[in-house]
Amino acid sequence: MQESMQEADSIHDLPTTDQAVPPPSSRRRGIVGLLILFLALLLLTVLPPLINVSRFQLRIARNIGAAIGRPVHFDHVSLVLLPLPGFTLDNFTVEEDPAFGAEPILRAGQVRVTLRFSSLWRKRVEFATIALTEPSVNLVHAANGKWNIEGLLFQATRIDAAPTAQRFAGPARRFPYIEATGGRLNFKRDQEKTPFSLTDADFALWLPEPHQWRLRVEAHPIRTDTTPGDNGILRVEGTLGAAGVRAGSLAQTPIDLHGDWQGGQLGGLGQLLLGRDSGLRGDVSLSFAILGTVGHNALVTEIKLAKARRADFVPASMLALDARCNAVALNSFHTFASIECHWPPAGSSDPSLLILTADLPDIRQLRAATASVTLPALPAATFLDWLSVATPHPPTGLAGAGTLAGTLKWATPASATPTRRLPARPHPLAPAQPANPVLSGAIEYSSESLDLPALGPQPIPLGDLLLRSTPQSEPPSPRSSREKPAAPATPGSFDLEPISLPLGGKQPAVLEGHFDAAGYTLHLTGAAIPARLLALGAAIPQLGDGLAQILEPAPPTEPTQTPHRPIDSSTPAPAASPAPDAPAPDPAPIHIDLTATRAWGGPQTWRETTLPPPHHPTRK
Predict the structure, then answer these.
(1) 291 Cβ contact partners less than 8 Å away, ≥ 6 residues apart
(2) What is d(CA 525, CA 509) in angstroms, rounded to the nearest whole number?
(3) Which residues pair with 517 in a beta bridge?
(4) Residue 495 pairs with which residues in a beta bridge?
(5) Cβ of 28: how many Cβ atoms within 10 Å?
(6) pTM of the shown model
(7) For residue range 48-89, what is the model confidence (pLDDT) as tens digits?
(8) Residue 272: helix, strand or coil by DSSP?
(9) Residue 47 burial (10 A CB sphere; 0-12, 13-18, 19+)
């Protein structure tokens, strides 16, 4: 009995399952395993710098160069084992095709190459990733329409590669995942570097299917010769090539790209395109799609503009625009044909108010482009909103029902012969340059009347206003028999046809004008009540600038004759002032013959017409 009780006590003293103590052999194996892991990590950290892989530098450079079709150089190669085995290449450069210059097409301070661990056991090295840190890429467009990147892209299409995400190795090596961070893309024309660049660029390229590459780019567009503006972020993503189909040439390679430009500002866009602040403000966004082949594809673009205004003027309602453009890109984006833009977009519920068509045979020769702008029936209120953005002093207090319609064309005249640009020493083979294009066409404003609140409820009757290009066959005829014949018309000039303005005289006053590349002249003649003419000028600052200075000169210090109403001694003395409650008499009209001149960007000056007005103002 006592033995049974002792046995029972010994059983209770045994440890439970949760409190089981591992045998000494298990503890020793765990400690040894930890020591081995620690030593392995220590060796992986310490050994790579001690291993000299420089003897493989030439072989690595030669293999990479053979893969991309360009010579490759780097200063130093080092082995890296953590977190994945691979190499680090310092000061990595890829040489340029001599046809496009001597500057390397790519520079990177450091390139990190990781290996597929499973490929090491098969004695065939495969790259898993290739990461470039802050690379600089030169994109060159030559005079013959070729791009320097075409050779690299075509070389990539000729390589037999397995998809990047393929799990197991096959007969063809798997294409690596190529990425770049903090990159810069510079645009060059032949040997000349343009001021346009993409900075802070992140790039990724991989192979989802055989012979189909997928790419992704995000960058900031800038202009290097001006103060950087807020130019937003450009994003592009899509595919190059078709799954399982090898193209015969780069031009035949399918392309499907989609992208957008978000967060841009109108002021930054002006700096980017013009190299200066255009004085405009607003939000700009753009999206586009490219579908077809590299040599021939369709381009669709959506453009949105919101809260557009001038920097120095905040109108009651700011301009908004939503347009869609279609075009065909040819010759590897060297030629753009059948460009057509509609605002609002074609097919929407609202009819198009503006239609732009254009052709650009060569993106390097903008003078060879042709374009036309058509206004089917633009409401006058919308046109005044446009003027609030286009001019620092838009018409105020001017209202009236009407429409603006017409077409303006930008093209080289059919009768113009190409000019020949000669070098310092004339040479019979000097290249001929296309003649300068000119603007032509006609715009007509149709309205029954103009409402000027300053003149009371009675509107001013108004006929059609017609602005059309000056005929080139013969010079404009003189305005009167006293004037000498005017000089031949300047190509690209426009005439404002005579407009009748009832300004209080028995006969309406007549306004006409001439516009060209230097500036414009306005000629106003007839009878008018000064107050009525000044009210019209206040409503239309483009007409009224400087008008008050000639209609209301400073009061003289001693009696003298005014230039508008001579004083006659036979005129009886003025009658006594009417009673305070009597209505004021209507002011008498005066005869005016005035000419205004303005150079674009300069002040406007009115003067009395004593000599024939200058047909072409001199730029100041």
Answers:
(1) 255, 256, 257, 297, 298, 300
(2) 6
(3) none
(4) 468, 514
(5) 11
(6) 0.76
(7) 454 556 667 887 888 788 777 789 999 888 887 777 788 889
(8) helix
(9) exposed
